[in-house]
Write a structure and sequence with these properties.
alpha/beta, 7-stranded mixed sheet, 5-stranded antiparallel sheet, 21 strands, 23% strand
Length: 453
């Protein structure tokens, strides 16, 4: 009989924690998991899943507009925010039930409560109950943060935007990352007049420079006001029920709502980590090695709480690798290289591999850039000004395609499939030898012959 209640106790039932719990249980471990909010975590409950649903809803504005060019007479469309929120809630509840059911089927004990580490093998649940475990996994994710400015409490974050009682006529969004950009695009199409404020020179820092330019230009054409080189100085309630946002460049805007999307912080406060020797860095993230081990024996951490590569599939891989390695005698590591990523803006971004700037720094023999911009076949009849942008970054010495960057409809789907080719080391010659599939936008990726630089 084990001296512990469980072989593994997982704190946090998001994507990474749930995967780790289920895989460990499949290897015969006695597993428990605690979640203080809702099973499913940020991605399922208030992140990528509801966000993608809202993105899809917003794009119908373009579909209704474009239909006329294809012979359709569409009555003036009418959008209901309340119906969208209700439909989203129903789907999120379904997913939460599925996650909970899968844990139950895997014989994982679930505690709907906060859990705090009080010793190397001891966890305290709300109410004071103590449970013990041979090993502990922290998978508590992250949360949005607000700047320390006057009136910050008047602003919302990506947590609250999904459930606003009604859509404001105007909104100021602070931030230039993918969350800020995605919400700016979708809310604009749902009828909100959006102003995006970003302190840097261009939105989407870390993405290829051409991607940043193309998306920014498209957002402006769609009606989003973008102010760069400025930050939010203060927020105050307006006499007419709105909010006055004052910027550091001296400008101000009176809007119905202010949304802060300037980053997220790992959820490590109050977990008892320091009491057991788990190192937490200045950013609040748990320090781990490539096997997700913390600095404390028998305690591991995966997902956004480690602030390595904050993407849901990465957290799932990390959790799976941990469980196979520790409980299944099948050691392997989650590979953080060449991870495809997307920005579900409109137009959409899909990318995998190195940016042009990164490739120039890494490829000693130089690089070649192949790119194109064109109107998709749909735009020829719809009359839309939307364009597709594609870019290949190629190592001149090895001929390997080191990066692919796409803006346009279906960009994320293309990036996922291209991720396989790039991961396998495909060369430009391999792309050239692939027969085009016509008529598609993706065929342009295998017909680019002349480098632009």
């Amino acid at each position: 009989m084990s001296q512990f209640d469980y072989d593994l106790f997982v704190i946090g039932a998001g994507s990474g924690g749930v995967r780790a719990a289920r895989i460990a249980a499949s290897h015969g471990a006695r597993v428990a998991i605690a979640e203080e909010f809702r099973v499913g975590g940020t991605c399922v409950i208030r992140g990528c899943v509801p966000k993608k649903l809202y993105v899809l809803a917003s794009r119908f504005a373009d579909e209704f507009r474009d239909a006329a060019g294809f012979g359709w007479n569409v009555a003036e469309p009418e959008f209901s925010w309340a119906r969208l929120v209700a439909a989203k809630d129903a789907e999120i509840s379904r997913l939460e039930r599925a996650y909970s059911s899968n844990l139950e089927k895997s014989s994982v004990a679930t505690f709907p409560t906060r859990a705090v580490i009080t010793g190397p093998h001891t966890i305290r649940l709300d109410g004071g109950r103590l449970v013990t475990a041979s090993k502990i996994l922290v998978a508590t994710g992250g949360r949005p943060v607000k700047p320390a400015i006057p009136g910050a409490d008047l602003a919302i974050t990506s947590n609250e935007v999904f459930d606003l009682p009604s859509l404001p006529e105007t909104m100021l969004i602070l931030g230039g990352g993918y969350i800020a950009v995605e919400f700016a695009c979708l809310l604009q199409r749902l009828g909100v007049k959006v102003t995006l404020v970003y302190r840097g020179e261009a939105i989407l820092r870390g993405f290829d420079e051409d991607i940043r330019r193309v998306v920014s230009e498209a957002m402006v054409v769609a009606g989003v006001e973008i102010i760069v080189g400025a930050n939010l100085a203060s927020i105050a309630a307006d006499a007419c029920g709105g909010k006055k946002a004052v910027l550091t460049n001296g400008q101000s805007r009176i809007v119905g709502e202010v949304m802060i999307a300037t980053g997220r912080r790992p959820n490590t406060e109050g977990l008892g980590l320091q009491t057991v020797g788990v190192e937490v860095n200045a950013a609040g993230a748990i320090a781990v090695d490539d096997q997700s081990r913390t600095t404390a024996p028998q305690i591991w951490a995966v997902g956004d709480v480690t602030n390595r590569l904050n993407l849901t599939p990465v957290a799932i891989r990390e959790g799976h690798a941990f469980a196979d390695t520790v409980f299944g005698n099948k050691p392997w590591l989650a590979d953080h290289r060449l991870v495809p990523s997307a920005v579900f803006s409109t137009p959409e971004v899909g990318t995998v591999g190195l940016t042009e700037g990164e490739a120039r720094a890494e490829c000693g023999g130089g690089i070649s850039i192949f790119q194109t911009s064109f109107r998709a076949i749909k735009a020829t009849l719809s009359g839309s000004a939307d364009r597709v942008f594609m870019k290949l970054v190629v190592d001149k010495v090895s001929d390997k395609v080191r990066g692919v960057h796409i803006v346009g409809e279906g960009a994320a789907e293309m990036a996922q499939l291209l991720g396989i080719s790039i991961k396998m080391g495909a060369t430009k010659a391999d792309f050239d030898a692939t027969m085009p599939l016509h008529p598609t936008a993706a065929e342009e990726l295998v017909t680019l012959r002349t480098p632009v630089r």
